[in-house]
User: Fold these one by one.
Assistant:
Number 1:
Amino acid sequence: MNIKSLLLGSAAALIAVSGARAADAVVVAEPEPAEYVKICDVYGAGYFYIPGTETCLRIGGYIREDIGVGDGGSFDGVNHVTDHQHGDDDSTYWKQTRFTLKTWTGQETELGTLKTYTEYRINFGNSYGDFGDVDGPGGTTNPNRNGAGWQARNKSSALEFAWIQLGGLRVGADESAFDTFIGYAGNVINDTIVPYGNFQTNVIQYYFDAGNGLSAVVSLEEGSGEVGTIDSYVPHVVGGLKYTQGWGAITGVVSYDSNYEEVAGKVRLDVNATNELSLFLMAGYGTDDNLNDHTNNIDALGRGFYKQWGGNWALWGGGTYKFNEKTSFNLQASYDDWKDIGVAANVAYTVVPGLTVTAEVDWQRVGQGAIDNDSVWVAATKKDNVGGLLRFQRDF
């Protein structure tokens, strides 16, 4: 065999192998059409259709960082912390980081709109309060005495809301209609220096919108906590009536506490004074004979699930002034029958859409009635409690 024959044979072999590989080449299938999420604009921005259903879903929430200083009785400070090296009493920051996840769903049915809402909160940080070997004002009880609440930790995770609503009927975990229907006490962070009612409860409630600004609610509630949770098949009952117009609103709510057989009510006036200024005034009154009975198996110390303020009556007032689209000033002042006083004021600034920074100053003066009843709010250990709070919040 000469060299020419050898080269011709090798070339033929290479051509044959190449042809075989070409015949065995992998054919890539055409991709299937992608199923994109369809936007749902029926219930507002952020909703999309769950694929294969007629249900619209929105997912959101926020991340928040709170940094507080001052007296524990202002909701802001951490006092009488033992120094690690020398054993002295120090004060330190109150700090709390929160992650909140929210979901909303909506679907139109022959019986009306079917909606759900959930909100789950996870918190890390320490607790505000006075953790030294000290009493409250006038020798009252300090439940934080020698406690470890000043230590940062994974504090809690809580299902705050989880309700189903069809038309006007709502069932599930919610905040009491005694608070939500009439509204919170202003746009300050610490709006319960003089408390206006407890919040978390299971509800069976019906909301009715009569049109022309008139609405009403009836709510059967379980309550929560040792004092608030119902002890029989008889629920707490809340009813409310509201009239809303362009100038503002007039609202009233009344509650029956089935544990202590007491009645409480609140009335509120909201006024949109100008495009920039909105004002509110709210008054509460409640009976409290059984709440003040110290022979009860569970002593409420004068504060029930609904009538949480001291004594029979209380007042809250304040407002919001919007300097521009980014900056607002908020103020709230409160006073009750026990001579408790609360003042909170803040400035909220939207740095960029979705990020708000709020700086607040708070003051609580403990009334003599709270001292006499050993029922000092927020476990304050001083008559005058002052603190400040800085909040960073990213909503999404």
Note: The chain has four helices and 20 strands.
Number 2:
Amino acid sequence: MESKVPETWEKTTFGQVSEARMGKTILSKELTEEGLPVFSAATENEVWGYTSDESVFFERGTIIISARGTIGAAKIPRFERFVSTQTTIAATPATELDTKYVAFQLSCVDWTKYTSTTAIPMLTISALSKLPIILAPINEQRRIVEKIETLFARLDKGEEALRDVQKLLARYRQSVLKAAVTGQLTADWRAENAHRLEHGRDLLARILQTRRETWDGRGKYQEPAAPETTELPELPKGWVWASVEQLANVMGGVTKNKKRQEMPLRKPMLRVANVYQNRLELEDIHQTSITEAESARVLLEELDLLVVEGNGSKDQIGRMAVWRNEIPDAVHQNHLIKVRMIEKGLVEFALWWFQSPNGRQNIEKVASSTSGLYTLSISKIEALVVPVPSLSEIDEINELVDEAFSKISHLEIWCQTELARSTALRQSILKDAFAGRLVPQDPADEPAAALLARIKETHAAAAGRTRRRIRT
């Protein structure tokens, strides 16, 4: 906030013009389905739950300030009575002030200056009381609030439209994937080139032959099981269903144990935290040690498909991305399962398939368990199915998907840029508001000095009554 303000304004502190107290300690298991609404730092403007305990509550006009997490986030609940948790501070501005004016001013504070540096950063009432507050005359406060709400309402509409576009782009991305892996995207191209396309059945036969010839496992070679196709959707002419086991070698990674510190080969190691849907985040890479004997199994190769085995969550199960040898000689932990396609031309198409609605459904079906948790294993991944068209058609599909995704990504970046611009504009509006530049000053307004004097008189009188009650 600006240090220079109009002459009719006054500088004070939050503790001089507001009363504050910590919220009530409430555990999630104590919440009920009805009663007083409960607000928590973690729920922003949404009700966290309800409580039947009315021993401590706050009334309309109280500002709830987050004391943990997103410190300083302020909201004014629209309920006559409500409760806030121990992760918040409930602040009641003096009745002489416009509550929204105070709340808006809190939203442009640099809270890092007032946050404790303990193991768990938090905002205390003591720190909040020292926060500088700028008071405008009360009539000007109301004009400022009205102007901010008008401008923010316009920004709200623009942001809502941008988020609608983001949702449409996400749906369009899924539509492209569905069309790609069901053959709809290349239907015309396939009809025009049918005379020169290899049948998926022949491609699968060649892959299986290569698999037999290059197999170096123990014991007698066993043909991988073909998938059961009776419940699978019909494929375009020239496509066939195959199991991942038929198409690839599926391998686990490095297990964590104390003995690894003594092993001879030090390698960078990918973890679950590095693998997201169709992308890798490689800023934070751990190191591990392996033996020469296990290196062939755990080292990553160009175009390996990395799959997150899951942590029980339906949404996170089966995240996958393609490894493009970004870090030489890297290995992967055992919570990442590696799918090494025998025919590298299938890698991108398999990725599109597993990201599509049908592919996701297949993953969730295989990963589900009677306990309600979702996990993958090597055998479960081997049992997943993949449609197999010709390599020529896969090349055409990859080109069309890449082209569509490039346009989608361009629009997604534009949406993110505009949303960031809107956020910056909000801060600019608030900065102007509390520097006296958003609305004109009115010489007829009572100066804020008189307003602040009345607030101090009211506080002094209330404190005097409290002292007299204590002496009695």
Note: The radius of gyration is 31 Å.
